[in-house]
């Protein structure tokens, strides 16, 4: 085992990473490549699936080469992915019929409002655990079939896409399915990703015929659903392909569930928050699919081979790290690391609140027409105040979710495990601890998303025998405890609610 490892393909919103882990969960290889963000119209976000696959080949090859490893040393490959992002491709050629519609894409908001007008929101929630929202894959797939002209450069056929879908000629899937298909030739997803499509019944654990019919998605289009850690394997890489080796592909998890798995949140009540482009707060609720009365999602956490599904409550925050990227885009900062320095240079935001609702608001507000708002500015407002307000918005949005989580679950979070790029920022971690008045634990290996998918694949092939081995690997880098008084923080948080109100239902002309 000393010279074997587990690889993880982490296909995220802004780029693709390949990491290799040893038996102690330490990183031995790491390669990353960005892909283009495509914005055809305001509120529309697309990715090129072919570019994503080519980048995946590139980072896997580069990561192994940089570490001096052979593909044959990989005991397994796991996959984790940006979740609801949706691809439709030709079953025969394997070529996409349109760009992927990204989870952030809001073009189907009108369709969601139709569902609301038809009183179908509760019906959808009962089956899927999800809010009816443009975020999920169902309306994205429907839009592609109804509106996408087959790309002339990619398809010589002019047939209507709906006719082709009905004839079994088209496949759909989230990015995990797209990668598994390209790696193994098999059309497979795992339960965690299936639960994010708004087409899957999370209690019956099957594609729902009524939902497939509602959104006009033929059952022949959807992938086979398998456990997140699958001892039967999803398939093998082609020994004649780019890797030159037959490696089992044996685990897949949506990125937030993968982070929960990598943070070893295996027990009921364990919680984590991942700070990436958006932030995603998940609490393991065990084998009970807890219904939310406070705007959270009920979702599948993970499933191990031969074991029951573990569920989770999730608070999805659409924009956190992307708000820091926006500060860079408008030249308020030169790089993300500068935010802490600027925020520390002032004692407060001087009454400024920033609501980063660039793509609407997720949990617990669920307003697809909310838009980014800065309130409370005066002539004395400087960029330092806006930068600090942006960091505070990340912490406030997390508190929105944390309070909803405690109300739904009846479990008080004593320690929140955090991960993702933004948690390298000590100022943000301390701010987060202060604002939710909870201990924050940051692990040594903060790439827990990739680690979680590696763990899932490694368990499937026997590289690790039990989840207890994985718990032993988890090590704390630093803990943060509240330093500010609850009364002071509560007053700040009350004004945050006022700022949220001003951002709601803004994009009424789109």
TrEMBL record:
Free-text function comment from the UniProt entry: Key enzyme in the regulation of glycerol uptake and metabolism. Catalyzes the phosphorylation of glycerol to yield sn-glycerol 3-phosphate.
HAMAP family reported in the protein's UniProt record: Glycerol_kin
Organism: Halobaculum saliterrae
Gene Ontology biological process: glycerol catabolic process; glycerol-3-phosphate metabolic process
Pathway assignment: Polyol metabolism; glycerol degradation via glycerol kinase pathway; sn-glycerol 3-phosphate from glycerol: step 1/1
Residues that bind sn-glycerol 3-phosphate: 13, 83-84, 135, 255
Keyword Acetylation tagged: no
Taxonomic path: Archaea, Methanobacteriati, Methanobacteriota, Stenosarchaea group, Halobacteria
Record's protein name: Glycerol kinase
SUPFAM superfamilies in the cross-refs: Actin-like ATPase domain
Chain ranges of the Carbohydrate kinase FGGY C-terminal domain: 272-460
GO molecular function, one term: glycerol kinase activity
Signal peptide: none
Keyword match Magnesium: no
Catalytic activity entry: glycerol + ATP = sn-glycerol 3-phosphate + ADP + H(+)
């Amino acid at each position: 085992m000393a010279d074997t490892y587990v690889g993880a393909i982490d296909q995220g919103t802004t780029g693709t990473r390949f990491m290799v882990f040893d038996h102690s969960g330490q990183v031995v290889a790491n390669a990353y490549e960005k892909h283009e963000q495509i914005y055809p119209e305001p509120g529309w976000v697309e990715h090129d699936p072919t570019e994503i696959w080519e980048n995946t080949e590139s980072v896997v090859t580069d990561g192994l080469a940089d570490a001096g490893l052979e593909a044959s040393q990989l005991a397994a490959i796991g996959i984790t992915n940006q979740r609801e992002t949706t691809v439709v491709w030709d079953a025969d050629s394997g070529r996409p019929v349109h760009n992927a519609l990204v989870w952030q894409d809001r073009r189907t908001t009108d369709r969601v409002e139709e569902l609301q007008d038809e009183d179908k929101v509760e019906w959808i929630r009962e089956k899927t655990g999800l809010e009816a929202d443009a975020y999920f894959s169902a309306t994205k797939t429907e839009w592609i079939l109804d509106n996408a002209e087959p790309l002339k450069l990619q398809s010589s056929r002019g047939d209507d896409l709906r006719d082709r879908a009905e004839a079994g000629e088209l496949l759909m899937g989230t990015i995990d399915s797209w990668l598994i298909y390209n790696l193994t030739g098999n059309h497979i997803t795992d339960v965690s990703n299936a639960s994010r499509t708004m087409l899957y019944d999370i209690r019956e654990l099957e594609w729902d015929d009524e939902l497939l019919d509602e959104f006009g998605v033929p059952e022949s289009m959807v992938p086979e659903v398998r456990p997140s850690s699958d001892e039967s394997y999803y398939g093998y890489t082609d020994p004649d392909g780019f890797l030159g080796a037959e490696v089992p592909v044996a685990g897949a998890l949506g990125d937030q569930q993968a982070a929960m798995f990598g943070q070893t949140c295996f027990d009921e009540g364990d919680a984590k928050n991942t700070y990436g482009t958006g932030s995603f707060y998940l609490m393991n609720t065990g084998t009970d699919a807890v219904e939310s009365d406070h705007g959270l999602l009920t979702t599948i956490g993970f499933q191990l081979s031969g074991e029951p599904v573990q569920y989770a409550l999730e608070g999805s925050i659409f924009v956190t790290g992307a708000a820091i990227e926006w500060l860079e885009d408008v030249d308020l900062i030169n790089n993300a690391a500068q935010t802490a320095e600027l925020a520390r240079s002032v004692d407060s935001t001087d009454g400024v609140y920033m609501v980063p609702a660039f793509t609407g608001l997720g949990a617990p507000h669920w307003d697809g027409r909310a838009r980014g708002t800065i309130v409370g500015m005066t002539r004395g407002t400087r960029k330092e105040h806006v930068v600090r307000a942006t960091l505070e918005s990340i912490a406030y949005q997390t508190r929105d979710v944390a309070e909803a989580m405690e109300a739904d679950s009846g479990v008080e979070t004593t320690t929140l495990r955090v991960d993702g790029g933004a948690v390298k920022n000590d100022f943000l971690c301390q701010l987060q601890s202060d604002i939710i008045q909870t201990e924050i634990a940051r692990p040594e290996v903060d790439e827990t998303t990739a680690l979680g998918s590696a763990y899932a694949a490694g368990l499937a092939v026997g590289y690790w025998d039990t989840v207890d081995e994985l718990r032993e690997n988890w090590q704390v880098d630093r803990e943060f405890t509240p330093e500010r008084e609850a009364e002071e923080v509560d007053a700040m948080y009350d004004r945050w609610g006022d700022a949220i109100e001003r951002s709601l239902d803004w994009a009424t002309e789109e």
